Every structure is written in structure tokens, then in C-alpha cells.
Automatic annotation (TrEMBL):
Keywords: Membrane, Transmembrane, Transmembrane helix. It comes from Labilithrix luteola. The lineage of its organism: Bacteria, Pseudomonadati, Myxococcota, Polyangia, Polyangiales. The chain crosses the membrane at residues 134-154, 166-191. This is HTH Mu-type domain-containing protein. InterPro entries: Mu-type_HTH. Residues 1-20 form the HTH Mu-type domain. Signal peptide: none annotated. GO terms for molecular function: DNA binding. The keyword Nucleotide-binding does not apply.
């Protein structure tokens, strides 16, 4: 791996030694010219403590070219609302921890003052299944959080209006329906390598379609920066298996040892 410096390999090994926070995979890019262009994927827990956060920053600082997972909220149906419903609890947790819980390494990558950081999910259009998955998860999280807030409000009110109980009843039924349907998420995840898996459960499309988008965006990123011999892509750990399948099966990458 001549295109990975000793300092980069050392930083990656340190990150790999914290499996609760990071997963590290390394690939050789295809090419007929005998080049040893290396692509690293850093799968992360999006929230972490200071020590793990520093390990991630140390890794990112070794790479001039960085791709990052970034859900394209403006291009996906209900994407902005879904982004809020997912990120708001994270922000609350970080605030309640008084700074002990740190933000994603993706945020750190975007703040680096050198090199290139590319949102590899960007595309001219989004797959239909991703719109469906976004709508489904938006509805699910809206039911969960609305129910949570109204239950808390119910405990605080001296007199509970009948309308509140009626709304909670409807939300309770919706919650049960979601719970019953989430059973189908198990086979959907197990069969995620198949393009139709999202039909079993739309939520799996948030993984599978984005795996494909990120792989295609990574190929474009590498093509746009042909003189840079090594690059890293940062994503949630759940994307690592699907992203690897896309790279290896469709784009000719080869996984290698660190």
C-alpha cells in the first residue's frame, strides 16, 4: 500500500481498535496501469465521546481527499422533516451531556481547512425507493415523537382534555401498526443485496439506495481528482457491507488488509 503513509496506517489502526465507534475497510481501486490507488472507508457511530472523536479527526487529517455521507434532504421527499426528526434528538443529547458527547466525524471532515471534502450522495435525481423510505421513516418518527411529547404533556396538565386522549389513541394504533410491520424489516435487511428488498420494508431503502449513491459518488470523486493517490469515505457503520458490495461487485475494487 505505497499510497498510504505510515502515519495514515497508524491512525487507521488506532481507530480500528475502537470497534464501538469505528469500522475500517481498505480497498485497491481498479486500473490497468498498475497503480496502487487506495480507498479507505471509515464507518462510524455518528455520536461518540471525546477520545473516539479525536481518533476520527486524526484519521481524517491524513487524507487530502475525503468523501462523506450526507443525506440529501432537499432532493428527497420529506427529507428536511426526516433530517430534523433524526438530528434534533442527537443535538438534545449532546446538549444534555454538556459537551461530553461529540458530533459526527462527517462534520469534522467538512470543517478541515485543507484538501477536498465531497458529499458523495449528491446526484441529479434520487431513486423512487429512497423517497418511499424517507416518507415511511418520517411518518414513523413523527408518530413516536408526537406520542412522547403528548404523553409528557398529559402528565403535566391538571385537566386532560378529551381531544388529547383521542389523539393519543390514534397515535397508539398507528404505533402498533408500525410495530407489526417492523417484523418485515428483518427479512428486508437479510435480503438487502437484492434491489427489491425495500418492497418488504421501505426503511431498508434508506440504506440500500444510499449505498449505491455513495459508491457512484465515490467513483466520480476519484475521477475528478486523478492525481490524489489515496482517499477516504466516511459513513455510518451500517452502510459498510452494502457500500463494499457496490465497490467490489459493480466497480472492480478489491478489499485488502490494512
Amino acid at each position: 500500500m505505497t499510497s498510504l503513509s505510515e502515519s495514515a496506517r497508524a491512525a487507521l489502526r488506532r481507530a480500528a481498535e475502537t470497534p464501538l465507534s469505528y469500522g475500517v475497510r481498505v480497498y485497491l481501486a481498479p486500473g490497468d496501469n498498475g497503480s496502487s490507488r487506495v480507498l479507505v472507508t471509515l464507518g462510524e457511530a455518528h455520536l461518540k465521546l471525546e477520545h473516539a472523536s479525536k481518533l476520527g479527526r486524526d484519521v481524517l487529517e491524513q487524507f487530502e481527499l475525503r468523501g462523506v455521507e450526507t443525506f440529501q434532504t432537499r432532493q428527497v421527499f420529506a427529507g428536511r422533516l426526516l433530517g430534523f426528526l433524526i438530528h434534533a434528538p442527537r443535538a438534545i443529547l449532546r446538549a444534555l451531556s454538556f459537551g461530553l458527547v461529540k458530533d459526527s466525524s462527517i462534520t469534522d471532515a467538512k470543517q478541515l481547512p485543507f484538501g477536498y471534502t465531497v458529499e458523495v450522495e449528491r446526484a441529479k435525481s434520487m431513486p423512487f425507493g429512497l423517497h418511499v423510505g424517507s416518507a415511511y421513516l418520517t411518518a414513523f418518527f413523527a408518530v413516536v415523537w408526537t406520542n412522547f411529547v403528548l404523553l409528557a404533556l398529559r402528565e403535566l396538565l391538571p385537566n386532560v382534555p378529551p381531544a388529547l386522549d383521542a389523539i393519543l389513541g390514534v397515535l397508539g394504533v398507528a404505533g402498533v401498526l408500525f410495530e407489526l410491520h417492523f417484523v418485515m424489516l428483518v427479512p428486508a435487511v437479510l435480503l438487502r443485496r437484492f434491489s427489491w428488498s425495500w418492497l418488504l420494508h421501505p426503511a431498508v431503502g434508506i440504506l440500500t439506495f444510499r449505498d449505491t449513491l455513495m459508491a457512484e459518488g465515490t467513483i466520480r470523486m476519484l475521477a475528478d481528482h486523478p492525481t490524489i493517490s489515496s482517499a477516504i469515505v466516511v459513513m455510518g457503520r451500517a452502510h459498510l457491507p452494502g457500500f463494499e458490495r457496490e465497490l467490489v461487485d459493480k466497480h472492480g475494487f478489491r478489499r485488502i488488509d490494512l
